[in-house]
Amino acid sequence: MNKLIGIDLGGTTIKFAILTEYGDIQQKWSITTDISNDGKNIVPNIIDSINHHLKLYGLTAEDFIGIGMGSPGTIDREHGTVKGAYNLNLASLQPVKEKIEAGTKIPFFIDNDANVAALGERWKGAGEGASDVVFITLGTGVGGGIIADGHLIHGKVGAAGEIGHLNVNPEGYTCTCGNQGCLETVASATGIVHLARDFSEEFSGESQLKWLIDDGQEVTAKTIFDSAKAGDSLARLVVDKFCYYLGLGCSQIANILNPETIVIGGGVSAAGDILLQGVLKYFSKFAFPQVRNSTKLKIAQLGNDAGVIGAASLIKIQ
């Protein structure tokens, strides 16, 4: 009885892994997230998939210390419930822990998906086991997880670590949360495309990126970063502005928390060094001197495995 199961519950796929108690993945698989029927099929599908794979690998419930899961939405960690996970179609309260423990006979633990990814990067990735780590995930939005003195910070209602809603421009774009100028409106995959379209209107020089936008072609965060790497002058301006906002946001977080490491992950982090160097430039400009010299910025290392590894670590930190 020393294995762990980690689950990363996402809007399109549910990722699973069986890990050793030291966080090494032994098996992994995924299933499609069935959001039909108000998301009522999600938990039964998780139970069926776990039981099917345990049978497949010749394992029983007795081989496991527990199951950990990262989920979007509002999480009640004590009761193991999820609500408000709108991209999963789960508007009503779901007693996830109760159902999964009954269906698998294995103890179950749950936390917010961004918190769980932070734990993953801290345990086996760029956080290198440090006691103070902040994880920022750049995807469709901007999420985050804060580990201080070895503990996840949850806050009064579990809303700590909402890094995407740091205000970086009070006169800026309106956010889905209703406020103006949130970090996620400019430093996400959708935010950088918004910046590119706005910059393109004012830009008069030679630019392949401007041509793509004007021609109505699909432009993504990857298109913009690849164009910047190739020397496109408009793309470079856009990436610089993106890095300005993210560097400003990172400096505010670091000035308050002084973590050992800020880890930047999520789909946009695949841009790599051009992103990291750009953010560092502005982080160094805005951070308090002692913070600037002690907090490191790194690109995440675990990719899609951060969620399942971090979820499994929920079992270890109980």
What does this structure look like?
There is one protein chain. This protein has 318 residues and is α/β, with parallel strands linked by helices. It folds into two domains: 3-119, Nucleotidyltransferase, domain 5 (2-Layer Sandwich), CATH 3.30.420; 128-301, Nucleotidyltransferase, domain 5 (2-Layer Sandwich). The protein has ten helices and twelve strands. It has helices at residues 42-56, 96-104, 113-124, 189-202, 208-214, 221-229, 233-257, 273-286, 289-292, 306-316; strands at 3-9, 13-19, 25-32, 64-71, 74-76, 81-83, 108-112, 133-138, 142-148, 151-152, 261-265, 296-299. The chain has a five-stranded mixed β-sheet. The longest helix is centred in the C-terminal third of the chain and has 25 residues, at 233-257. The protein is globular, with a radius of gyration of 20 Å. The mean pLDDT is 94.
